[in-house]
From TrEMBL:
Keywords annotated in UniProt: Hydrolase, Iron, Metal-binding, Nucleotide-binding
Entries under Gene3D superfamilies matching the protein: Hypothetical protein af1432 (1.10.3210.10)
Protein name per Swiss-Prot or TrEMBL: bis(5'-nucleosyl)-tetraphosphatase (symmetrical)
Catalysed reaction equations from the record: P(1),P(4)-bis(5'-adenosyl) tetraphosphate + H2O = 2 ADP + 2 H(+)
Domain HD per the UniProt entry, residue ranges: 32-147
Protein origin, superkingdom: Bacteria
Pfam families, per database record: HD
Any one Gene Ontology molecular-function term assigned to this protein's record: bis(5'-nucleosyl)-tetraphosphatase (symmetrical) activity
Cross-referenced PANTHER family: BIS(5'-NUCLEOSYL)-TETRAPHOSPHATASE, SYMMETRICAL (PTHR35795:SF1), SLR1885 PROTEIN (PTHR35795)
KW Metal-binding (keyword) present: yes
The UniProt record lists the keyword Lipid metabolism: no
InterPro entries: Diverse_Catalytic_Enzymes, HD/PDEase_dom, HD_domain, YqeK
EC numbers, comma separated: 3.6.1.41
Amino acid sequence: MSQSLNPLAPPTHPDQREIILNWLKANVPDTRVRHILRVEEMAIELANCHGLDAGKAAKAGLMHDLAKFFKPLRLLQMAQKEGLTLDSVDIANPHLLHAEVGAIVARDQFGVFDPDILQAICDHTLGSPGMSALSCVVYLADGLEPGRGDTPELEELRHLSRQDLDQAIWRLADYSLRHLLDARHLIHPRTVLTRNWFLQKGFKRSPRKH
């Protein structure tokens, strides 16, 4: 991960998916569990489209919202204990920390130590400049799973996500930023940096490293 999560540990439990699902059913609303399962499914689909590890995509998708319903104080305390660098927007809106705190839960609660999976969980909300293809897949799956709607723009973005990860990232970031601006919400600088990085990469037309 980008900050301090240690990737070294024993392998995960073979029945991990069932264990995680049971935990989710006990700790998040049914509507959110259904969203999570749709993200898992779309992450697998996108991973297969782009020649990535579908198993890693599935795990990151299944665990991306582990901390979604943690209280703001708990999110802040866990992030601070982990030594994560907090932006002023994080402090004003601790909910944004649920991605990084979710990775902490994945590691400490469920014994997940694969750095690619942990980083993809971290990146799924705000993105990250230069993030991996796996992170892109989970970011896109979270934003574009079928429950998000069926407008022509979303359908176009879904089609694009199967063809071009880089372009889909900045296009989805644009879509998200418009909604945040319309709602007059705070915008985390990392979302803007992510959008700009992938847009600029498109200008350079360099191939993605998987």
